[in-house]
């Protein structure tokens, strides 16, 4: 019988001017017809009609990079994003712990602080958290998730002492003159010992939480999302959720460098495929080469305006050697997997382009030219680097929301020229690249319409207009979060546009993003999210 969706403006995104009156969906969850209501009714005689009340409809939004399992932070951690001082962080954590009745066997977690927004203009130290508790471990993580702070109790439980050396690709903060730890940790290599203590204390019940985790994406119109750094235990959890039929949306996972990624794939062979099973599959492998620009750890070729402690020649550092990065990239290519790589600074971008080419040239995989490697974040990628990406078939996935949330910090940290061209979507478009836009959830909520708004308008929170030459059109931005996302995953035959034969993944919006004033794109509301013809989220039922 199928369904006939009508009374809406359907925007197929096959062409900037393409519009339709109706979409007919077959019993198989695929689009049977896109066009006039009259023809849809003739072809779908007996189909259930769904009146969309004059809304606008676009293809399901495709998240090209986030951390799905990290969305737990929204459910289990104190939200520190509105804190403007150390005192507010302490008070927020105290209230959170009291409300949740967290005792010595538990853990107090907070996420989302940003030193750029604190009156102290620096990262908190352990004294801020010791004021919350000396008996319960406390860990707060920076909005970038690349750094965090532990109290003394957590340092003790993790076995981190003043004699603990800094790990390769990470750093522990130390007090001036004493060498004692101040509780600060930088990059995953330094933070992982804390997570080894805190995660078991959270009492995770994924079967109970998976609905709320998915809602975080579905309320933003996302029908396909990513788990962009999947640990072995999380791979097993996701596989179990898929087998139990608890996933409503498609989730693509990427096992992370630093673990036995091949063992993770081998332990879950049915999901190591281009085909989904229970809405889950592995998409490839993930590595990271540097840190966060707003945290001053993105690896640059030219110094920041001012580095930590006023350092004038600070360029930060890489997290992997060329040899290690080349070996990991070659392992991905040899095993016929796509490689995703976290790359914020332009020095890290140089390294990725260098090592990927070397790994590809050394590989005997006959399909090595078609694997669509992805540079994740691209905050300071240069024009020549986008041109090189086009040459080697690499896709830039751009964290465009940085423009609004940290554009002012980038202007301070990089100066007007480099800071003004962050998230250079214009260069990517001119290079002919199928660039995508992401929000790196849980760094930010998976609001891809806001990411599109940022790429189109390029305005910061303080009202600064960043380099207008890097703007893209609303159509280009909407393609970036639909068709280009599908292309990045190798799923362009099934997703990304409204066309016959593709999956009926749709987003119902209160306004047409190609018709409103471009400044209003992020104000558009998601009314419903439809996966393979079934409504899996309604705003009026949220």
UniProtKB/TrEMBL annotation:
Pfam families: Amidohydro_3. It comes from the Bacteria. InterPro entries: Amidohydro_3 (IPR013108), Metal-dep_hydrolase_composite (IPR011059), Metal_Hydrolase (IPR032466), YtcJ-like (IPR033932). CDD domains: YtcJ_like. SUPFAM superfamilies: Composite domain of metallo-dependent hydrolases, Metallo-dependent hydrolases. Keywords: Hydrolase. Residues 48-537 form the Amidohydrolase domain. The keyword NAD does not apply. This is Amidohydrolase. It comes from Adlercreutzia equolifaciens subsp. celatus DSM 18785.
């Amino acid at each position: 019988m199928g369904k006939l969706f009508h009374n809406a403006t359907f925007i197929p995104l096959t062409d900037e001017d393409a519009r339709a009156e109706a979409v007919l969906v077959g019993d198989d969850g695929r689009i049977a017809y896109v066009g006039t209501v009259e023809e849809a009714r003739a072809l779908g005689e007996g189909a259930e009609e769904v009146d969309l009340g004059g809304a606008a409809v676009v293809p399901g939004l495709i998240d090209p990079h986030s951390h799905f399992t990290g969305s737990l932070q929204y459910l289990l951690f104190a939200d520190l994003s509105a804190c403007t001082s150390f005192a507010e962080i302490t008070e927020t954590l105290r209230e959170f712990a009291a409300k949740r009745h967290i005792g010595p066997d538990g853990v107090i977690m907070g996420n989302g602080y940003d030193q750029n927004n604190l009156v102290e203009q620096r990262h908190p130290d352990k004294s801020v958290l010791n004021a919350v508790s000396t008996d319960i471990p406390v860990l707060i993580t920076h909005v970038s998730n690349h750094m965090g702070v532990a109290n003394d109790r957590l340092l003790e439980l993790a076995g981190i002492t003043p004699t603990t050396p800094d790990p390769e690709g990470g750093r522990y903060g130390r007090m001036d003159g004493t060498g004692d730890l101040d509780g600060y940790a930088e990059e995953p290599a330094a933070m992982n010992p804390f997570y080894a203590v805190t995660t078991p204390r959270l009492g995770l019940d994924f079967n109970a939480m998976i609905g709320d985790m998915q809602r975080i994406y579905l309320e933003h119109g996302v029908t396909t999302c990513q788990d962009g750094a999947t640990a072995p235990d999380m791979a097993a959890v996701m596989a179990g959720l898929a087998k139990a039929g608890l996933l409503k949306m498609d989730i693509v996972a990427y096992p992370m460098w630093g673990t036995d990624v091949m063992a993770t794939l081998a332990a879950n062979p049915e999901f190591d495929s281009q085909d989904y099973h229970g809405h889950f599959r592995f998409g490839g492998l993930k590595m990271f080469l540097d840190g966060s620009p707003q945290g001053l750890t993105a690896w640059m070729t030219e110094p920041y305006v001012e580095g930590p402690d006023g350092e004038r020649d600070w360029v930060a550092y890489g997290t992997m050697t060329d040899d290690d990065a080349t070996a990991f990239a070659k392992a991905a290519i040899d095993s016929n997997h796509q490689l995703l790589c976290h790359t914020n600074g332009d020095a890290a971008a140089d390294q990725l382009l260098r090592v990927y080419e070397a790994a590809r040239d050394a590989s005997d995989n006959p399909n090595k030219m078609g694997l669509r490697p992805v540079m994740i974040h691209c905050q300071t990628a240069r024009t020549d680097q986008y041109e090189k990406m086009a040459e080697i078939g690499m896709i830039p996935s751009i964290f465009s929301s940085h423009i609004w949330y940290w554009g002012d910090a980038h202007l301070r940290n990089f100066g007007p020229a480099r800071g003004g061209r962050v998230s250079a979507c214009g260069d990517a478009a001119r290079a002919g690249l199928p660039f995508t836009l992401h929000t790196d959830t849980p760094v930010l909520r998976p609001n891809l319409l806001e990411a599109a708004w940022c790429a189109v308008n390029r305005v910061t929170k303080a009202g600064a207009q960043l380099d207008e030459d890097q703007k893209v059109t609303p159509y280009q931005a909407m393609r970036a979060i639909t068709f280009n996302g599908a292309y990045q995953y190798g799923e362009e035959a099934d997703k990304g546009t409204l066309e016959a034969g593709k999956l009926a993944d749709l987003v119902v919006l209160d306004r047409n993003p190609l018709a409103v004033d471009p400044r209003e794109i992020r104000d558009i509301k998601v009314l419903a999210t439809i996966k393979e013809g079934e409504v899996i989220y309604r705003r009026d039922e949220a």
